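Reopening this one. Same input as before:
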Amino acid sequence: MDRAKTLILGMGSPILGDDGVGVEVANRIKENTDEKFVDVVEASASGLELLDIICGYEKLIVIDSMNTEGGQVGELHRLACSDLDPTVRPSARHQINFATTLEVGRRLNMEVPEVIAIYAIEIKDATVFQEGCSPEVERAIPGIVETIIEEEMLRAD
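Same output, byte for byte:
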């Protein structure tokens, strides 16, 4: 039985240090999965631009960074779409967040993925221009990759 086509969307900017952790984790997952069943895409886009990337897949795995007050650097958070608040009054298409983007896609009868998993990695800083993550985030990446592969059953056989 074939598995459904899955998209792993690594979000962030690799030139902003820890902000690129989503891209790094997605690329490391790609090394351990079967390309027949999983596509990996890097994205720094936001808002409605994401619809062109995500539509047509049955399953979407989003991997991004987050910086919360009191969060532990390198901690992996699993979020549901219901955890995301929609944008109330966006003034530009880039200000439309992920929850609103999905809702717009559904209302337009686009093929938005039915299954969506969102992973967010607690980071130290997303404002420093540097390639690569901070040592704290870098140390957490192998465990994060393994966790996502196991939870999402992505292991290449």
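So the earlier flakiness isn't reproducible anymore. For the record, The longest strand covers residues 59-66.
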